[in-house]
UniProtKB/TrEMBL annotation:
Catalytic activity: GTP + H2O = GDP + phosphate + H(+)
Keyword Transport: no
Superkingdom of source: Eukaryota
Subunit structure: Binds to 80S ribosomes. Actively translating ribosomes show mutually exclusive binding of eIF5a (EIF5A or EIF5A2) and EEF2/eEF2. Interacts with SERBP1; interaction sequesters EEF2/eEF2 at the A-site of the ribosome, thereby blocking the interaction sites of the mRNA-tRNA complex, promoting ribosome stabilization and hibernation. Interacts with HABP4; interaction takes place at the A-site of hibernating ribosomes and promotes ribosome stabilization. Component of the mRNA surveillance SURF complex, at least composed of ERF1, ERF3 (ERF3A or ERF3B), EEF2, UPF1/RENT1, SMG1, SMG8 and SMG9.
Record-linked Gene3D superfamilies: 3.30.230.10, Elongation Factor G (Translational Gtpase), domain 3, P-loop containing nucleotide triphosphate hydrolases, Translation factors
GO molecular function: GTP binding; GTPase activity; translation elongation factor activity
Compartment(s): Cytoplasm
UniProt domain Tr-type G: residue ranges: 17-362
Cross-referenced InterPro entries: EFG_II, EFG_III/V, EFTu-like_2, G_TR_CS, P-loop_NTPase, Ribosomal_Su5_D2-typ_SF, Ribsml_uS5_D2-typ_fold_subgr, Small_GTP-bd
Chain's gene name: EEF2
Entry protein name: Elongation factor 2
GTP-binding recorded as keyword: yes
Taxonomic path: Eukaryota, Metazoa, Chordata, Craniata, Vertebrata
Length: 840
């Protein structure tokens, strides 16, 4: 039974200190959706018996069939914290009721744009790691994205049941596994984070602080050190320390937590804790985590799984676990599941960790504002975001579109950062290309309805104040994918999201019946709206292209297009990858192009970017929206540009944001500003369709050296200048040693340790990790490319009993390499070892 109503949720929305916006992020198949079931179950939305199997946040039929999350799904939960637990919260709080806006996100690299969209509207992240597999490639990618957005992480080590039942690890081995995962996560945080001196302070995870959970999402049980510390504090208090007040009890629990992790040992003879591994009489002492936490869990597992009925009954009585009559008749795993989820319910442990350690919007928006808002840091909108002011101007960011049951319409899903959004409110809808003071990409329209997203359901709600996540009806027709909604006339845009992958795999589609072409075009528009990353392009030839992050992403997009958006049968081509065109040196001559009427001349040269600049533009470190002097200083200091030239950048391209730059280095030219727009239009055209094979250009700087113009304006219009500029740009590229660049997948092969063999066990081999750079050209996923590296690593892999080597593709376009031959090279030449095989 749902234990809260929409009215209760609306009431707590005003208590912004008691809101937690968080997303669940992890590598694929590490158990995010299964774990989320425990939280949803705690809120009473699904029955506890079905938690872990329902995967409530996997709302699509293909998600349930494939057992992977494809779209991020939001759900709001109400959680009441006990008075004792409130003392652990260090930030401001307002009562004991908490609203948790949770977004379950995909783990597959092809859908990482959904993770980016989820992270933008949340302040905290629950990072889930499979304790058997450890920290994997995508764990690092999503964690890096979270840190870049200033999202505070907490860690959950999942699938602990596998470590006990399948691998049958000893307590000390399991502790070392946990310790290694904590260290690996902290290495990633320290590598990509801003350090303790940064605006977020110390965000390292530490079991002693309670920011690390352990458990099994499938079986519905989990704990942090806080749960066991409370048990032992209560036990010691019962022995004669008397009744403790809430504050005093919290202090005792925190002290106990410090003793339950690390190199702390417990002497059962005198019941005392020690920092030495040996007792005074030289006896080896057990580690506190193993003795006081893992040992009781191991005993429960051993008694139930080995059908020791008397011992099981004693343990259940000792642990004060109340079982239903139905559960008492169970044996083996079903009984284990019932006992563990009543003793250590995952919902309580995780929701406590989330409410105590993740920041409220009040805390988070203070340090996130400078990354979120493009405008000046002291205008009315920025101040409203920083203070999370419900009376300030409305500032809301739409991060994605969610299809509705009504075909062709979408809910605009986003987060209110300032002010209050309500049904019927007239707002300014600003697309990503909006520039303050101009009317392009700007609409003034009322909001038809505001709704609360509840997994596979939606609930109507009258209004939503700042700090909350909401869906809007009626604004989808004015936005393509993302945008800013505001009531402040001088507001700037919220910063556009940067994805960690690029849509590099393309397929051409056409309707099987030519009469269905209008339906296909309309379906492609809806598809482009429904996915944060997919691109739908119409080529000059009239061909319709869909570009996605990988084959799985394209497969899902094509299925959605055929079944939901266009609703027609379609034909598709084989997947191909996008290339980029670049130059390898400066033009060897100054290139001249005359206008068709022979009255105007343009003189240009092309040169390659210094290493790293294209990546900086992709990340947003250098952009067209930056303040002029700030950008010039950055380019001069990091890339040794001339400051005067850096201040005369005309534009970036293609699309005004791409990794190519047009710079004016002319001196004393008349009428130059009058043709600037025409030259820029030619530049955008040329960088969109390069000189070699009409692919986008990348990493090229074009310098306008001189211009000769006719004195009469009628002879230097756009019709004369645009094609002239394009021809001159092409000539500059062709005289600068042009090259093609291909997208590269970084593939890691991970070989896990096999389950423990029968005694006597041989020495356990270390996991082998090998990384390769593989061209994405084949479209066969990666296995075909790995035959060559596999030969190199083969003897090592075969030496591992039961060795298997799944591949993981990290990013769609992490790097580009120059292509010297266009024909398909044989498999032996494809694998490029990025790193030697190393033991880790």
């Amino acid at each position: 039974m749902v234990n809260f109503t929409v009215d209760q949720i609306r009431a707590i929305m005003d208590k912004k200190a008691n809101i937690r916006n968080m997303s669940v992020i992890a590598h694929v198949d590490h158990g995010k959706s299964t774990l989320t079931d425990s939280l949803v179950c705690k809120a009473g939305i699904i029955a506890s018996a079905r938690a872990g199997e329902t995967r409530f946040t996997d709302t699509r039929k293909d998600e349930q069939e494939r057992c992977i999350t494809i779209k991020s799904t939001a759900i709001s939960l109400f959680y009441e914290l006990s008075e004792n637990d409130l003392n652990f919260i260090k930030q401001s709080k307002d009562g004991s009721g908490f609203l948790i806006n949770l977004i379950d996100s995909p783990g597959h690299v092809d859908f990482s744009s959904e993770v980016t969209a989820a992270l933008r509207v949340t302040d905290g992240a629950l990072v889930v790691v499979d304790c058997v597999s450890g920290v994997c490639v995508q764990t690092e990618t999503v964690l890096r994205q979270a840190i870049a957005e200033r999202i505070k992480p907490v860690l959950m080590m999942n699938k602990m049941d596998r470590a006990l039942l399948e691998l049958q690890l000893e307590p000390e081995e399991l502790y070392q596994t946990f310790q290694r995962i904590v260290e690996n996560v902290n290495v990633i945080i320290s590598t990509y984070g801003e350090g303790e001196s940064g605006p977020m302070g110390n965000i390292m995870i530490d079991p002693v602080l309670g920011t690390v959970g352990f458990g099994s999402g499938l079986h519905g049980w989990a704990f942090t050190l806080k749960q066991f510390a409370e048990m032992y504090v209560a036990k010691f208090a019962a022995k004669g320390e008397g009744q403790l007040g809430p504050a005093e009890r919290a202090k005792k629990v925190e002290d106990m937590m410090k003793k339950l992790w690390g190199d702390r040992y417990f002497d059962p003879a005198n019941g005392k804790f020690s920092k030495s591994a040996n007792s005074p009489d030289g006896k080896k002492l057990p580690r506190t985590f193993c003795q006081l936490i893992l040992d009781p869990i191991f005993k429960v597992f051993d008694a139930i799984m080995n059908f020791k009925k008397e011992e099981t009954a004693k343990l259940i009585e000792k642990l004060d676990i109340k079982l239903d009559s139905e559960d008492k008749d169970k044996e083996g795993k079903p009984l284990l599941k019932a006992v563990m989820r009543r003793w250590l319910p995952a919902g309580d442990a995780l929701l406590q960790m989330i409410t105590i350690h993740l920041p409220s919007p009040v805390t988070a928006q203070k340090y996130r504002c400078e990354l979120l808002y493009e405008g000046p840091p002291d205008d009315e909108a920025a101040m409203g975001i920083k203070s999370c002011d419900p009376k300030g101007p409305l500032m809301m960011y739409i991060s994605k579109m969610v299809p509705t049951s009504d075909k062709g319409r979408f809910y605009a899903f986003g987060r209110v950062f300032s002010g209050l959004v309500s049904t019927g409110l007239k707002v300014r809808i600003m697309g990503p290309n909006y520039t303050p003071g101009k009317k392009e990409d700007l609409y003034l329209k009322p909001i038809q309805r505001t709704i609360l997203m509840m997994g596979r359901y939606v609930e109507p709600i009258e209004d939503v104040p700042c700090g909350n996540i909401v869906g809007l009806v009626g604004v989808d027709q004015f936005l393509v994918k993302t945008g800013t909604i505001t009531t402040f006339e001088h507001a700037h845009n919220m910063r556009v999201m940067k994805f960690s992958v690029s849509p590099v795999v393309r397929v051409a589609v056409e309707a099987k019946n030519p009469a269905d072409l209008p339906k296909l075009v309309e379906g492609l528009k809806r598809l482009a709206k429904s996915d944060p990353m997919v691109q739908c392009i119409i080529e000059e030839s009239g061909e319709h292209i869909i570009a996605g992050a990988g084959e799985l992403h394209l497969e899902i997009c094509l299925k959605d297009l055929e079944e939901d958006h266009a609703c027609i049968p379609i034909k598709k081509s084989d997947p191909v990858v996008s290339y980029r065109e670049t130059v390898s040196e400066e033009s060897n001559v100054l290139c001249l192009s005359k206008s068709p009427n022979k009255h105007n001349r343009l003189y240009m040269k092309a040169r390659p970017f210094p290493d790293g600049l294209a990546e900086d533009i992709d990340k947003g470190e250098v952009s067209s929206r930056q303040e002029l002097k700030q950008r010039a200083r950055y380019l001069a200091e990091k890339y040794e540009w001339d400051v005067a030239e850096a201040r005369k950048i005309w534009c970036f391209g293609p699309d005004g944001t791409g990794p190519n730059i047009l710079t004016d280095i002319t001196k004393g030219v008349q009428y130059l500003n009058e043709i600037k727009d025409s030259v820029v239009a030619g530049f955008q055209w040329a960088t969109k369709e390069g000189a070699l094979c009409e692919e986008n250009m990348r990493g090229v700087r074009f310098d306008v050296h001189d211009v000769t113009l006719h004195a009469d304006a009628i002879h230097r219009g756009g019709g004369q200048i645009i094609p002239t500029a394009r021809r001159c740009l092409y000539a500059s590229v062709l005289t600068a040693q042009p090259r093609l660049m291909e997208p590269i997948y970084l593939v890691e092969i991970q070989v896990g340790r096999p389950p423990r063999p029968a005694p006597p066990p041989p020495p356990a081999p270390q996991p082998l990790l090998t990384a390769f750079l593989c061209p994405a050209v084949s479209g066969a996923g990666g296995w075909w490319h790995l035959r060559r590296p596999e030969q190199e690593a083969g003897p090592r892999l075969r030496g591992v009993p039961g060795g298997r080597h799944p591949h993981v593709c990290r990013e769609g376009l992490p790097a580009c390499e120059r292509v010297l031959r266009l024909h398909r090279r044989p498999a032996l030449q494809h694998g490029r070892p990025g790193l030697p095989a190393v033991r880790v």
